[in-house]
Amino acid sequence: MTQRSSGIPCVGGLAYDDLHRLLLVQRANEPGRGQWSLPGGRVEPGETDQQALVREMEEETGLSVEPGPLIGRVSRGNYAIADYLCTVIGGTLRAGDDALDARWCSAEDLHALPLVAELITTLSEWRALPE
User: Fold this and answer.
1) 26 found inside a domain
2) DSSP 115
3) CB neighbourhood size of 131 (10 A)
4) Which residues neighbour 47 within 8 Å (Cβ) at sequence distance 6 or greater?
5) pLDDT digits over 10-25, tens only?
6) Eight-state DSSP code of residue 39
7) Is residue 1 included in any domain, yes or no?
8) What are 78-131's pLDDT values in tens digits?
9) Enclosing domain of residue 15
10) Quick one: CA torsion of 61, 67, 73, 74, rounded to 10 degrees?
């Protein structure tokens, strides 16, 4: 069992395409409605982080992923989020249940979009910014 910060357990996925653009979703719900963020969500009771990541990525983006290593952890309000690198293995990109939109974003795109607080800073600290 991995140690987790106190708060509601959540996961997020860092997925990149062949051009090393990062997959982001525009949030449909609070917190951060209308802002762009990494896809992800709550870990349901009985789920591992990896199971939650596969489920959330498919629900929000239509993509099937294979979870990879933990990249970092953040706390946002009541949420304790574990962010994992993941590899897209199938599916068709589309905005799903908790997303208004979903797309691959370059570094330039990040600076033009309304992002959730501290996303660029966090990705930079993790050396995870897209190209």
Assistant:
1) yes
2) B
3) 10
4) 55
5) 999 999 999 999 999 9
6) S
7) no
8) 999 999 999 999 999 999 988 999 999 999 999 999 999 999 999 999 999 998
9) 8-125
10) 10
Q: State the pLDDT confidence band at 5, using cuts at 50, 70 and 90.
A: low
Beta strand spans in the chain (E): 8-14, 22-27, 36-37, 40-42, 63-76, 79-91, 99-105
Place of tokens 């910014």: 129
If one counts the domains in the chain, the total is: 1
Cα Rg, the chain, nearest whole Å = 13
CATH of the domain at 94: 3.90.79.10
Closest alpha carbon to 89 in 53, 67, 64, 59: 64
Torsional sign, CA 22, 10, 25, 50: positive
Write out pLDDT tens, residues 38-49: 999 999 999 999
Mean pLDDT over each residue of the chain, to the nearest integer: 93
In the numeric block, the tokens 């033009």 are attached to 112
Helix (H, G, I), strand (E, B) or coil at 125: helix
Please provide the size of the chain in residues: 131
Asked if the structure places residue 3 within a domain, the reply is no
